[in-house]
Design a protein that fits this description.
CATH topology: Tetracycline Repressor, domain 2
Strand content: under 5%
Shape: elongated
CATH class: Mainly Alpha
Structural class: mainly alpha
Radius of gyration: 17 Å
CATH superfamily: Tetracycline Repressor, domain 2
Number of strands: 0
């Protein structure tokens, strides 16, 4: 099997690698995450991630930060959609927590 040529430049490689990492973790759990797999998923050489991340721990840290922002946004969205009383807002936040954990099992 021959590898197809890959473009030298990528629009936003850092972002593409984070998204690829999230997808890999959603599909196969944390152990599925490798720099090579992320590079392949993003359509770049296996050496390309080194331009944006200082190894796998650095990519994992970026994925964790993204996951936290996604989680926080979900909580804000659910709270904003709730009635203005504290009990309804707390219930909505709990629903958001459950919905997020079901949708993003690896994060």
């Amino acid at each position: 099997m021959t590898d197809q040529p890959r473009p030298h430049h990528h629009g936003n490689l850092r972002e593409a690698l984070i998204v690829a990492g999230l997808e890999l973790m959603e599909e196969g759990g944390p152990d599925a995450l490798t720099l090579r797999k992320c590079a392949k998923r993003a359509g770049v050489s296996h050496a390309a991630p080194a331009h944006h991340f200082n190894g796998l721990p650095s990519l994992k840290a970026a994925i964790v930060a993204r996951g936290y922002r996604m989680f926080s946004q979900t909580m804000r969205d659910y709270r904003a959609a709730a009635k203005p009383d504290p009990q309804a807002q707390l219930a909505a936040i709990c629903e958001g927590y459950i919905a997020f954990s079901r949708q993003h099992t690896a994060v």
